[in-house]
Amino acid sequence: MPKLKFEQKENLSRAEAAARLSAIADALGSDAEFELERGGEKLEFNVPDQVRFELEVEIDDNETEL
What we know:
The chain has one domain (14-65). Helices cover 24% and strands 24% of the residues. The protein is built from one helix and four strands. The chain has one helix at 14-29; strands at 34-38, 41-45, 58-60, 63-65. Strands 1-2 form a two-stranded antiparallel sheet. Strands 3-4 form a two-stranded antiparallel sheet. The longest helix is centred in the N-terminal third of the chain and has 16 residues, at 14-29.
């Protein structure tokens, strides 16, 4: 089975980041397929009932990365 990694980094306002996280939470909480879009391409997949959750925070001088 091939391994796929989807990584996306972009600068967003706090409101935009909150909206993005909210949309992800809604998708995870429903029975619908999960959809990611990047560069006009869509990736749709089902999320299993158990997932591995990762949260990374980096603080460096005047920059905080979540």
